[in-house]
Design goal:
mainly beta, 5-stranded antiparallel sheet
């Protein structure tokens, strides 16, 4: 899940009007390179040695459009869904102007050349704003939000629009699909519930007094979400009645995690362990700075990063510190745990692989920009995006680069890996579908 836009609202960079293109001004440890300029980003940057990062000023990347120019129909009424092309129409008319299909258009996402291998672009769907949240796949449809103030439902095979739903604010968090319904928020205090098939509004839940800062979570008949009004809410999914709310120390930007009857989340610099049934506090752990990532649980431990540059591992039951690892700059993405290894990126531009039991450094890989994308691990491959405009595929054991894909702009979206295909969003407004033999 992605928190850049929320952090900038906190910093006062985005005020009354939220624009779909994010200008990031906070510290970065490496100067950004345009993809393809000079030395290739990430080339031979795998290392098993400890890393010391030096802060460097941020240079804003030009907004490249790798699939040409397309017109966008942005005249959708807010709060209503717009259907895609009618089934059975002429194929030439069915394809909307915001979809690139490999082998159909003359211009489109270009494959990397030279000694860097790349996956094949199946399709790329263009929206009118940055795509930051992790896409969700359900029933042959990809659901995702955009800063153009829409939630989209796109056919997973063809990349064609099924429907889109207009909202009053950008959609930066990932939606949740459950029981034929889509749950999501849009930088406002409302939780939307849509019909997954046609995008029609089923319910708009308004409990929070300020914008909802997390993706929704459903477990055991209860809907959970956090808000900037400092509360974590628990709502009955059938009646939409509030069960309980928990008051935290500040804004809640961390999407909660449920594990063994407890819910874990962060607010400001504090991580909480709360009884999922009652909302009673079990423990709390304070870090040295903001925690905006979602925690991950594995083998009795909870893992989370902080803007104080540490990755923490604490006991799930007691909240006591087990170990911590210091990166070269703040850690904003969520950690991924696979095969007793924790993978996490940092603003220092590195992806770290650590032993999950003791935090021992296994390897790190340097990209050409800070990493706001949470990693995804599948079949021995780690996929992660970078502000250098690339999506990387790395060997999970060694950190050696398998390939990189030049997306054309910052990649903050957490990749979704399914059926030999990687789906991810980009700040240039595209959702990409890449076919690769590395994916299982």
């Amino acid at each position: 899940m992605h928190k850049r836009s929320m952090n900038m609202l906190r910093s006062g960079i985005v005020a009354a009007v939220i624009v779909p293109v994010i200008l990031m001004t906070q510290g970065c440890s490496t100067a950004l390179r345009r993809p393809g300029a000079g030395k290739e980003s990430g080339d031979d940057e795998r290392s098993t040695s400890p890393v010391t990062a030096t802060s460097m000023p941020v240079r804003k990347m030009a907004r490249a459009n790798p699939v040409g120019r397309y017109s966008q129909d942005m005249v959708t009424e807010k709060g209503k869904s717009t259907p895609g092309p009618a089934a059975g129409s002429d194929p030439g008319q069915e394809r909307p102007p915001d979809v690139y299909l490999a082998g159909v258009h003359d211009s489109g996402p270009k494959q990397n050349t030279g000694d860097i291998s790349s996956p094949r672009v199946i399709w790329a769907f263009k929206t009118g704003g940055a795509v930051e949240g992790r896409p969700v796949l359900h029933g042959g449809v990809i659901y995702f939000g955009s800063h153009d103030r829409h939630l989209y439902a796109v056919d997973v095979k063809a990349g064609r629009l099924r429907w889109k739903f207009a909202t009053p604010q950008p959609v930066s968090e990932s939606p949740l699909v459950r029981g034929g319904l889509v749950y999501f928020s849009a930088m406002a205090k409302d939780m939307y519930v849509l019909n997954a098939k046609n995008g029609h509004l089923v319910r708009k839940l308004t409990l929070a007094r300020k914008p909802i800062g997390t993706s929704p979570l459903i477990h055991g008949g209860t809907l959970y979400f956090g808000s900037w009004d400092t509360h974590l809410y628990a709502v009955d999914v059938k009646t939409f009645q509030e069960k309980w709310r928990f008051g935290a120390s500040g804004w809640i930007d961390s999407t909660p995690l449920i594990h063994d009857g407890f819910i874990y989340f962060a607010s400001n610099e504090t991580v909480y362990g709360v009884d999922a049934g009652t909302g009673a506090l079990v423990w709390q752990f304070r870090t040295g700075d903001l925690v905006t990532s979602s925690p991950a649980a594995h083998d009795g431990m909870l893992y989370f990063g902080s803007h104080d540059s540490y990755l923490y591992a604490v006991d799930l039951k007691t909240g006591r510190l087990r170990w911590k690892f210091k990166a070269g700059n703040r850690i904003s993405p969520s950690p991924a745990v696979s095969g007793d290894v924790v993978y996490v990126g940092s603003d220092d531009g590195h992806l770290y692989a650590l032993d999950a039991s003791d935090g021992r450094h296994l390897w790190h890989f340097r990209t050409g920009g800070r990493i706001a994308s949470s990693a995804a691990v599948s079949a021995g491959v780690v996929y992660v995006g970078s502000d250098d405009g690339n999506l990387y595929a790395l060997d999970a054991k060694t950190g050696r680069k398998k390939w990189r894909f030049a997306a054309g702009d910052w990649v903050h979206s957490t990749p979704l890996v399914h059926a030999h295909t990687v789906y991810f969003g980009c700040e240039n407004g595209f959702l990409y579908a890449l076919r690769t033999g590395d994916v299982r």
